[in-house]
Design a protein that fits this description.
This protein has about 550 residues and is α/β, with parallel strands linked by helices. The protein contains 23 helices and 16 strands.
C-alpha cells in the first residue's frame, strides 16, 4: 500500500479509513487460492532471507555514522518516503536505521529474527513470536517506517499498563528519529487524549482506540461529515477537526493478536448516552453507537499483528481479516520440556497433588508458576498453600503494574507464583543462574483452557531464549471441560479403570470447545458482515 493513500491530508482525506464492503465468497476464495499458490512457489521464510541480507548491508553504513549523520540519514529517508512511498528498498534502509538507533539508545540490537518479524508486519501479516523474544522491539521497525512516511501509527497493546510501559521504553528511539509518541489510557482527559492521537505513533489498548473511534463517528454523523472537514481545512477553519480524537484508521500493529483480533470477536463495544467511554453491560441507557472488534479492525487501511500462539487460529484469522501467519524462528533452540498430563478423579485430589509437587520443587529452590483458569481457582490454591505454610504470591489482574512486578520476579530461586492463564503475558521473567541449574522455571497448568493456544501461550513463560524450563498439566475429572463434555457415567468408568485414557479425552473435550467457540465467532462474523453491508447500502456508518 502506498504511503500516500494512508496519509491524512486534503487530497487523501482528513480521516482515512477502509470503507469497502467485504468481498463476496467467490472473490475471497480465489484470493486465498492465489495467496496459497504464491506461498507454495516461494515460502515466506525464503523471501525473508534476501531482505535480511539487504538490511544487514545498510546496517554497516549506519554503524559507522556519527550522531549528526544519523539525523541526516533520517531526514533523507523521510523525504524519500514522502515522495516515493514505503517501497521495499526504502523500508530496508529504515529498518537498518532503527536497528542502529535502538542499539545506541536502548542498548539492544535487533536480531535477524527481529528483522524477519518486523518485515512480516510491514507486509501486513501476522507474526507468531514466542514470548520472551521481545515483540515490542520488532514492532518499532514497521512503526518507524510508516511514521517517517507521515502515516499515523497505532500500536495496540493488551492493556493500559503495557501501553504506558512500551511508550516510555521506546520514547528515546522515536525522539532520536524526530518522531513524537503518545499513549491513551482509561482516565486520560480529552485534551491529553487528543494530543496523544496527534503524535506520530500512539500506544493504547484496543478498547481505548475503538471507543474513541465511536466517539469520532458520532461527531461526524452529527455534522456534515468528511466534506465539512475538507472545507474547514481549505478555509483554515478547524473547529470540527480539533474535536476529533483520532486521525483516522491508517495503520495498526496489534500485539496480543489472538486475544484482540479473535477472542474479543463476540464482545460488542457499545457507546451509550450515559458515557464518555464504552459500557458493555448498560442496557437502560440509549445506545448511541455500536461496533464489534472485527468490524473496527477491518476498517484500518493496513492491519498487522503478533502473538505468542496463532497457528491454531489461522483459518479464523484468514476468514476474518484475510491475514496470513508467519512463524518467526527462535533465536536459540527451545529447551522447554513437557511432562505427560496428570489426571485426578476430583478437584480436591488434584489440588493436593499440585501442593505436593510445588512443595517438592520449592524445597529444592526451583521457581514454580501455577496457571489457573480464573481468579476463583487462584484463591482456592492460595488458601491451600497458606494452610501448608508455603510462601507464595498471587497475581491480581486488577492491579496490572503490581502483577507485572510479581510476574517479573517469578523466576527467583524458590519462588512460588499463582496466576491465571491470561495474567501479564507481556512480562518477561528474569531467571537467575541458580534457577537455571535447577531446571529453570517449572510451569504447572492446573486446568485446560477453552482453547489449546491459551495453554501453549502460558507455557511460554518458561524456557525463553534457550533457557531450561518445564511444563506439566495437572487436571481432574471435575474440571470445567470435563463436566461439560464427559458424561458422569463415563467419568465413573474412567475412575474405575484407573483413569486410563482420561488425558486424551480431556484434550478432545478442549478440541470440542474450540470448535463450538469458533462456530459462534463465525456466525457472529457473518451477522457482522450483513450489518456492514446494510449500513453501506443505506449510507450510514457505524
Amino acid at each position: 500500500m502506498s504511503s500516500l493513500i494512508a496519509r491524512p491530508g486534503a487530497a487523501f482525506g482528513i480521516y482515512p479509513e477502509r470503507e469497502a464492503v467485504p468481498a463476496g465468497w467467490l472473490e475471497q476464495a480465489s484470493g486465498r487460492a492465489v495467496a496459497g499458490l504464491r506461498a507454495a512457489v516461494l515460502p515466506w521464510g525464503d523471501k525473508i532471507k534476501p531482505v535480511v541480507a539487504e538490511i544487514n548491508y545498510h546496517s554497516r553504513r549506519c554503524a559507522i555514522a556519527s550522531g549528526k549523520d544519523i539525523v541526516d540519514i533520517t531526514e533523507e529517508l523521510r523525504l524519500q518516503l514522502g515522495r516515493d512511498g514505503q517501497t521495499d528498498s526504502l523500508a530496508t534502509a529504515v529498518f537498518a536505521l532503527v536497528r542502529e538507533v535502538c542499539k545506541r539508545e536502548l542498548m539492544q540490537r535487533h536480531s535477524d529474527q527481529h528483522l524477519a518479524c518486523g518485515w512480516a508486519l510491514f507486509k501486513g501479516m501476522l507474526a507468531e513470536v514466542e514470548a520472551g523474544e521481545d515483540k515490542s522491539l520488532a514492532a518499532l521497525l514497521p512503526a518507524c517506517t510508516a511514521a517517517l512516511a507521515g502515516i499515523p501509527v497505532h500500536i495496540i497493546t493488551g492493556d493500559d499498563y503495557l501501553a504506558e510501559r512500551d511508550a516510555y521504553r521506546m520514547r528515546p528511539v522515536f525522539t532520536t528519529l524526530g518522531l513524537s509518541v503518545g499513549r491513551v489510557s482509561e482516565e486520560m482527559p480529552l485534551p491529553h487524549r487528543c494530543a496523544a492521537y496527534r503524535c506520530d505513533v500512539t500506544y493504547g489498548s484496543a478498547r481505548q482506540f475503538a471507543t474513541d473511534y465511536l466517539q469520532d463517528r458520532l461527531l461526524l454523523q452529527r455534522s456534515s461529515g468528511k466534506l465539512q472537514l475538507q472545507l474547514e481545512r481549505l478555509n483554515q477553519q478547524r473547529p470540527l477537526c480539533e474535536q476529533l480524537r483520532l486521525q483516522g484508521l491508517c495503520f495498526a500493529i496489534v500485539d496480543h493478536a489472538a486475544s484482540n483480533l479473535v477472542e474479543e470477536a463476540l464482545t460488542p463495544l457499545v457507546l451509550t448516552d450515559a458515557q464518555g467511554s464504552a459500557d458493555r453491560n448498560d442496557k437502560e441507557s440509549e445506545i448511541l453507537a455500536r461496533i464489534s472488534y472485527p468490524r473496527f479492525f477491518r476498517r484500518y487501511l493496513k492491519l498487522c499483528g503478533m502473538s505468542g500462539a496463532l497457528q491454531e487460529l489461522s483459518a479464523e484469522l484468514r476468514n476474518m481479516y484475510d491475514l496470513e501467519i508467519y512463524r518467526v524462528p527462535l533465536r536459540q533452540p527451545s529447551q522447554r520440556r513437557f511432562a505427560a498430563d496428570q489426571v485426578f478423579p476430583d478437584r480436591a485430589s488434584k489440588r493436593q497433588a499440585i501442593l505436593d509437587q510445588v512443595l517438592e520443587r520449592h524445597q529444592l529452590g526451583q521457581p514454580v508458576l501455577v496457571g489457573t483458569r480464573n481468579s476463583a481457582d487462584s484463591e482456592h490454591l492460595s488458601q491451600l498453600f497458606t494452610a501448608a505454610g508455603l510462601p507464595h504470591q498471587v497475581l491480581d489482574s486488577a492491579q496490572p503494574s503490581q502483577a507485572a512486578v510479581k510476574m517479573a520476579g517469578a523466576g527467583a530461586p524458590g519462588s512460588v507464583t499463582i496466576a491465571t492463564h491470561r495474567d501479564e503475558l507481556g512480562t518477561d521473567i528474569a531467571l537467575g543462574q541458580q534457577a537455571r541449574e535447577l531446571g529453570g522455571l517449572h510451569v504447572i497448568l492446573s486446568e485446560r483452557n477453552d482453547a489449546a493456544y491459551i495453554d501453549r501461550q502460558f507455557s511460554q513463560h518458561c524456557a525463553r531464549r534457550g533457557e531450561p524450563g518445564s511444563v506439566v498439566a495437572m487436571l481432574s475429572l471435575e474440571d470445567e471441560l470435563a463436566g461439560k463434555f464427559l458424561p458422569q457415567s463415563l467419568r465413573r468408568l474412567l475412575v474405575k479403570f484407573g483413569l486410563l485414557g482420561a488425558a486424551k479425552l480431556l484434550r478432545l473435550a478442549q478440541l470440542r470447545q474450540q470448535q463450538i467457540q469458533a462456530r459462534a465467532r463465525r456466525d457472529a462474523l457473518g451477522a457482522d458482515r450483513q450489518i456492514e453491508e446494510l449500513l453501506a447500502f443505506s449510507g450510514r456508518k457505524q
